[in-house]
C-alpha cells in the first residue's frame, strides 16, 4: 500500500508520499534529523520495527518504499519471525550519495536477510528517479520510474486504475505540474468508495500520513502530516538540513588511465 508522486529537475525535487497502513499498527513518529556514517538524513520512524518508509539526506538523495503485492508471489510468508522489516532496509541506504552505492547495499542486504516484496524509489541529484522491485526472490535492475506509483493489498488492479484516473483528472501535463497539484491528488477521494481513493480508508487499513520532501540547491526539507483517527490531519511537523555537495571525482592525470562505470 502507499502512493508516491513527484516533480523533479537537475537541482530540485518535490515528492509527496501517502503512507497506508493497517489500523492496528502503531502511529509513526514524526521526522527527525539523524546521522549515519557521517551523513545527516531526515526520516519519520516506525516505532514498532524502528525503520522508516522514506528518507532524504543532506547529499540530496531520497528513497521511498512501497509494499509490493505480486500477482504470482515467489516466496511464501512463512514464519513472521524470519522476516526482516523492510523499513530497516531503507535506513541502511540513508548515507548513500549515489545510485551505484545504494544498489550495492540493497543487493547485499537482500541476499543476507529475508524481506517481503517491495518497490523502492530512488532519487539522486542530476538523475531521474529509478525504481527497484523485489518480489521476494529476485531484484530487478533499476528502471526509470514515472509518477505516480501506487500499490494496494486489496483489489490491486482496480484500485491502481482508479488512482491513476484521479491523478490524470487533476494533472494533464506533468511537465507543468505544481506542488499544490500533487498535494490535491494525494488528498483525493474516489466516487467508487473510500477504498479506492489516494486518500484511502478500509476496514483493515487507512492512509495514516502524508509526507512532502523538498530538495533544492541549499536545503533538504521534509514536512510530515499525521492523519488522526477521525480522518482529519493533525499538526504538521517539519525537519530540514543544509544541502551538501558530493566532492567531484579527481581528474585523471596525464599518463594514467581513469576507469569509469
Descriptive account of the structure:
By secondary structure, the chain is an alpha+beta fold. The chain has one domain: 4-Layer Sandwich (Penicillin V Acylase, Chain A). The protein is built from 4 helices and 13 strands. A 7-stranded antiparallel β-sheet has the order 3-4-5-6-7-8-9, with helices on one face. Strands 10-1-2-11-12-13 form a 6-stranded antiparallel β-sheet, with helices on one face. A hairpin with a 2-residue loop joins strand 3 and strand 4. The protein is globular, with a radius of gyration of 18 Å. It starts with a strand and ends in a 19-residue tail after the last strand. The C terminus is likely disordered.
Topology:
Layout lengths: L1 E7 L4 E10 L6 E8 L2 E7 L8 E4 L4 E6 L18 H7 L6 H12 L7 E6 L6 E5 L8 E2 L4 E3 L4 H15 L8 H8 L18 E11 L3 E8 L10 E6 L19
Molecular shape: globular
Counting H and I runs of at least 4 residues, what is the number of helices? 4
Rg calc = 18 Å
The computed structural class is: alpha+beta
CATH superfamily: Penicillin V Acylase, Chain A
- Number of separate domains: 1
User: Approximately how much beta-strand content do the residues carry?
Assistant: 25-35%
- Give helix and strand order, one letter per element, not per position: EEEEEEHHEEEEHHEEE
**Architecture, according to CATH?**
4-Layer Sandwich
Q: Find the count of extended strands (DSSP E, 2+ residues).
A: 13
Helix content: 10-25%
The parts where pLDDT drops under 50 for at least 5 residues are 248-261
CATH class assignment: Alpha Beta
**CATH topology assignment:** Penicillin V Acylase, Chain A
Amino acid at each position: 500500500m502507499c502512493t508516491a508522486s513527484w516533480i523533479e529537475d537537475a537541482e530540485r525535487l518535490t515528492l509527496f508520499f501517502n503512507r497506508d497502513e493497517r489500523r492496528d499498527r502503531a502511529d509513526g513518529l514524526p521526522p527527525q534529523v539523524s546521522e549515519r556514517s557521517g551523513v545527516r538524513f531526515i526520516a519519520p520512524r516506525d516505532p514498532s520495527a524502528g525503520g522508516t518508509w522514506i528518507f532524504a539526506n543532506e547529499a540530496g538523495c531520497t528513497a521511498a518504499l512501497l509494499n509490493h503485492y505480486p500477482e504470482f508471489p515467489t516466496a511464501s510468508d512463512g514464519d513472521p519471525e524470519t522476516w526482516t522489516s523492510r523499513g530497516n532496509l531503507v535506513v541502511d541506504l540513508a548515507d548513500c550519495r549515489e545510485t551505484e552505492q545504494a544498489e550495492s547495499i540493497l543487493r547485499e542486504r537482500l541476499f543476507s536477510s529475508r524481506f517481503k516484496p517491495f518497490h523502492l524509489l530512488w532519487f539522486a541529484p542530476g538523475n531521474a528517479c529509478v525504481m527497484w522491485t523485489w518480489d521476494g526472490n529476485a531484484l530487478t535492475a533499476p528502471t526509470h520510474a514515472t509518477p505516480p506509483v501506487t500499490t494496494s493489498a486489496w483489489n490491486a488492479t482496480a484500485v491502481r486504475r482508479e488512482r491513476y484516473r484521479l491523478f490524470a483528472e487533476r494533472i494533464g501535463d506533468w511537465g507543468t505540474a505544481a506542488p499544490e497539484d500533487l498535494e490535491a491528488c494525494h488528498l483525493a477521494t474516489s466516487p467508487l468508495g473510500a477504498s479506492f481513493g489516494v486518500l484511502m480508508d478500509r476496514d483493515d487499513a487507512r492512509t495514516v500520513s502524508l509526507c512532502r520532501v523538498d530538495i533544492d540547491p541549499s536545503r533538504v526539507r521534509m514536512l510530515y502530516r499525521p492523519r488522526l483517527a477521525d480522518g482529519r490531519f493533525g499538526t504538521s511537523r517539519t525537519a530540514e538540513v543544509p544541502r551538501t555537495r558530493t566532492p567531484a571525482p579527481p581528474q585523471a592525470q596525464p599518463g594514467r588511465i581513469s576507469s569509469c562505470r
